[in-house]
Amino acid sequence: MIRPRVLVTSTDMMQPGIELLKKTCEVLLCPVPELTREEISAGYPGPVQSREDLLGHLKNSCPIDGIVWSNKVRCDAEMLDLAGPSLKAIVTMSSGFDHMDVDEIRRRGIQVGRSPFALDAAVAEVGVMLALSASRRAHEGRLMIERGQWESRPQWLLGHGLKGATVGIVGLGGIGRGILKRLSNFEVERFLYTGRSRKPADDEFGAKFVLLDDLLRQSDFVFVTCALTNETRQLFDAEAFAKMKRTVVLVNVARGPIVDHSALIQALRHGTIFAAGLDVTDPEPLPASSELLQVPNAVITPHMGSCTVKARADISVLAAQSLLLALSGEPMPYPL
Ligand SMILES: O=C(O)[C@H](O)CO
Q1: What's the structural domain count of the chain?
Q2: Is 266 buried (19+), middle (13-18) or exposed (0-12) by CB count in 10 A?
Q3: Ligand 1 atom nearest to CA at 94
Q4: Whole-angstrom Cα distance, residue 76 to residue 107?
């Protein structure tokens, strides 16, 4: 029997997913290039698959039947041309899909899907971590220790707590609901959410569906958990910050470009908003020279929301299962 040829766009895919694919497919792994000595000394953030590397791998791997897209290099017409006409299915090993040219993939009759939900708990945990760290000024406190500025006086490093707060969630999907569920033990006064439609969570945690403007004006904590789309790109701009409370804490665990970073820096520096916790930035990787890293009331992590061993292993299995289904002529569980 001929085994379908499946390309995985980086060797970084976790073993459980690779093992599952190997049971019935021939698996080709695109190696992640090592950093050069110059790149290391220039402080380059880490080994990544460049677009050029991936184009080269695609060209040398034909014919291929399926692809697990396990990195954030953009999947577009140029990539698809090189993948060749035998390509039947692509699944991205992520919940977000803004790096996939879905229209172009579908136009070619190729099934395309994503891998949501397996990472929800892990990302929700990072959302809570960022909310707590930003609202309680953890980064600022650490900087003060390092600078020998530790002060023991009653009004030093005062922050804002979750108890009695209004928490607003923008985009109540699996991650938003995960945050809601976790924060329901923090004595939050009320939950608001906004998005394209009302959700059953309305009943489950007493969360109230409101318009974005109302959420911005009323919330003490705002969590961004929506997808990056044409409607949400730069949703948080100077105008949005001006509507928010001066004591608000903004947490973004979705995608960097949903927030206008220059406007955010201004809002943080001028006290238009109190603090921000960001697991995602624009651009990524965030350059070490970014002004955002100089802002004391911003807590920043490097898009690591889904970085737990279990979440990454589960995502790899889900992606492999989806691709195998598509290759056997079945629909994918989470099509795009
Ligand atoms: O979309 C996702 O799966 C997470 O943000 C990790 O990229």
Answers
A1: 2
A2: middle
A3: 3
A4: 11
Q: How far apart are the C-alpha atoms of 70 and 94, rounded to whole Å? A: 8
**DSSP-assigned beta bridge partners for residue 208:** 192
Determine the structural domain holding residue 16 and report its residue range.
5-118+309-327
Q: Which atom of ligand 1 is nearest to the CA of 96?
A: 1
pLDDT at 40: 63
Same domain for 159 and 296, yes or no, is yes
The ligand 1 atom at the shortest distance from the C-alpha of residue 119 is 3
Whole-number Å distance, alpha carbon 255 to ligand 1 midpoint, is: 9
237's tokens: 């701009």
Encode pLDDT of 168-199 as tens digits: 999 999 999 999 999 999 999 999 999 988 87
Mutate to test the pocket of ligand 1, among 306, 322, 336 (most ligand atoms within 8 A of CB): 306
Write the residue with the smallest CA distance to atom 7 of ligand 1: 94
Domain match, 74 and 99 both: yes
* 129 and 228 co-located in one domain: yes
The reply to whether 335 falls in a domain is no
For residue 153, the domain's CATH number is: 3.40.50.720
Choose which residue among 72, 73, 75, 94 to substitute to test ligand 1 binding: the one with the highest number of ligand atoms within 8 A of its C-beta: 94
The pLDDT score that the predictor gives to residue 128 is 98
β-strand 298-300 against 89-92: which pairing, if any?
unpaired
Same domain, 49 and 134: no
* Residues annotated catalytic, as ranges: 303
Mean pLDDT of 10-27: 92
